[in-house]
Amino acid sequence: MKPNLYPLQFEPILKERIWGGEKLKTVLNKPITSKITGESWELSTVEGDVSTVANGELKGKSLMDLINETPDEILGTRVYERFGKQFPLLFKYLDAREDLSIQVHPNDKLAKERHNSFGKTEMWYVMQADADSRIIVGFKENSSKEEYLKHLHDNTLVSILDDVKAKAGDVFFLETGTVHAIGAGLVVAEIQQTSDITYRLYDFDRVDAQGNKRELHVDLALDAINYNKVDTQKKYDSKANTSNTVVDCPYFTTNFIPLEDKVQVSKSGETFTVYMCIEGSFEIEYDGFKHTYIKGDTVLVPAAINAFVLSGKASILEIYIS
């Protein structure tokens, strides 16, 4: 018997990181207990970190179980046809108390060959930024493997990487191969392909509580890096009560909705939709179901839910697969 579906929230999967802090609690209301919590995985089917429903009659059920039972209804007909019973995206919030490592992600081809995984195209929406916060993203000028290795060896890699100031509302889209690091003082919403493959290039010589440096992946990264200068920052409109396109790529589409009243949403059943509440609060009304979401909440609307209403005063990210 198929379950009655409704908008689904999931238990956050909290991750301690050497660079993490406490803003996931103070800014985003997450139930953290550690002073170095760096990530809240909101929606995941990564092996070992599969999300569990937090609300309603399906509470306690894993996302993978739901997909296996009703793939068309959860994923959507087109998504199921393209990806099978795989949930192709991973949704996170990150708190960078310190700089993250300088890293790169492989493309689909390399990730498949080496790790039997998707690649990791991703985007960041900056939710909160301390004064003078910045990100490292790509090279200042077109570079080469030889120049990169020389600066890595000389401990001067940062000098050839682009350094961009970041403020709340900024969006950065990172295709695979882009060398990057989220800088200290930023809270970001991250939307990415389902992958946990990261090649760490440089970690600012940090050590953990036991005095150990984290592993680097210099050799693996060589063929994964795009050595050309890239333009990663995305400009977008902010028309009220409208889905303003921010990123539209083969892996996901992300829209920005400045919600000021009510919006009637109609869907085709071809793809699931995810909403991330960036600011304020909003409600979803659907067939007698009504629930309020606040800043830091993430909700999956199954593809089988074709018509619903968003209401409230909020800034929302809307994500689906085109």
Describe the model.
The chain has helices at 23-26, 63-69, 71-75, 77-83, 108-115, 145-153, 218-221, and strands at residues 13-21, 37-43, 45-46, 49-50, 89-96, 102-104, 122-129, 134-139, 161-165, 171-174, 180-182, 186-193, 199-202, 233-234, 244-248, 253-259, 262-266, 273-286, 289-294, 298-301, 307-320. It has two domains: 13-234, Jelly Rolls, CATH 2.60.120.10; 244-320, Jelly Rolls (Sandwich), CATH 2.60.120. The strands form five sheets. It has a seven-stranded antiparallel sheet, with no helix packed on it. Strands 15, 16, 17, 18, 19, 20 and 21 form a seven-stranded antiparallel sheet that branches. The protein has a three-stranded antiparallel sheet with strand order 9-8-11, with no helix packed on it. The chain is globular. It has 322 residues and is mainly β. It contains seven helices and 21 strands. It is 14% helix and 39% strand. The mean pLDDT is 96.
The count of β-strands is: 21
**What percentage of the residues does DSSP assign to strands (E)?**
35-45%
Shape summary: globular
Averaging pLDDT over every residue, what do you get? 96
Classify the helix fraction into a percent range: 10-25%
Q: Domains counted in the coordinates: how many?
A: 2
Q: Can you summarize the main beta sheet?
A: 7 strands, antiparallel
Rg, Cα atoms, Å? 20 Å
Helical stretch tally: 7
Question: Distance N terminus to C terminus?
Answer: 30 Å
- Output the helix-strand order: EHEEEHHHEEHEEHEEEEEHEEEEEEEE
CATH superfamily of the largest domain, please? Jelly Rolls
Quickly give the CATH architecture of the largest domain. Sandwich
Strand line-up of the largest beta sheet: 1-2-5-12-7-10-14
Given as residue ranges, the uncertain stretches (5+ residues, pLDDT < 50) are none
- Structural class computed from helices and strand pairing: mainly beta
CATH class of the largest domain: Mainly Beta
CATH domain topology of the largest domain: Jelly Rolls
